[in-house]
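Pipeline run #58 for the internal structure catalog. This entry was flagged by the ingest filter as a single-chain record with no existing model, so it goes straight to prediction. Upstream metadata was stripped on purpose; only the residue string is passed forward. Reviewer on rotation: M.T. Logging verbosity set to normal.
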Amino acid sequence: MSIHHKDETQQSRRGSIRKNSRTDAPSIVIEQWVMDLKSRSTNMPGRTADGRVPLKMHARWLLLAGASVLVSACNSDSPVGAADNRAPSFVSTPIKSAEHNRAYSYTVDAADPDGDSVSVTAPVLPRWMTFNGATRTLSGTAGWDNLGSFPVSVAASDGEETVTQPFSINVVRGEIVCNQEFGSPDSSAYRLPFSVGRSYRVIQSYCPANPAWGHHNWFAYDFDMAIGDTVLASRSGTVFAVVEGNANGTDCSGGKENFVFVAHDDGTAMQYVHLTTNGALVSRQERVAQGQPIGLSGNSGCSSGPHLHVALFRSLTNFDRQSTLPFNYRNAVGALDVNHGLLQNGQYTAN
């Protein structure tokens, strides 16, 4: 009966320890010790011949076992009274869209609920983007070669726990940057589209401020050439498109312009638009040299009066304003603006 009472006391003692502890680790250690003590008591040193254990020896055994429990508890991964570390979290919301030719910036903000210092890194970035660890800022400008979706991942750590914020940035075509350097005319690959000694006025230059003007957010020039004036190729290349069957006169219903498109060897293309009826002097797939006559100016399509419209495109795949490139002419005699572009109402003579 006394043995049964002893077990109940130990069970009660175990329950009290479990109830008062903040973690289960010490109570598990104590329970295991008690069970081991019972199983090992038959081999306890100092046992008498009749199986009894002297009181002094029993106390020493319990003292050593208790020290072992204390050491085990102190070495536990979850010590009594220790609070669990909580992971940091992101406060900022990522910016998931960008336009080409426009600066992108996202400053990462993360906080730790325990007040621990948080470090931020960016393990996954597109090639056109950089990360400033001091300011926690992702920044960069996507170019034409960077259209599409790009994976990004930033990480925040308090030294023990790390969380990540994965997202994707979708880069779309944006408006051109009108205020940019065109480069020195001396290094230009292009010559004016009319004969040496001839002079014409630019009736509409690139990127006029008024959105009602046709070149708003375009890199393009309109020269006041008369119907029938000869148009020359500004650069050598291969003719890839010709239309010449439309009549002269203002017709803005769409697709009524006569034109010649020339593809250059570097992949760019130049258009010569509003040619007169049957005014093409070259054929599709014909190779042309710089300065070669390719058409006769006119007033076809959506035109307010006779003129030649020229624009330079990045490639042969898109012919909208976002695809235009800045350019000037190495043989143009006349004033240029601060970007080395041709001026609105500027008069230019081919040298």
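catalog note: Confidence is low (pLDDT under 50) at residues 1-30, 55-74, 78-82.
catalog note: The first strand starts at residue 89 and ends at 90.
status: ready for reviewer M.T.
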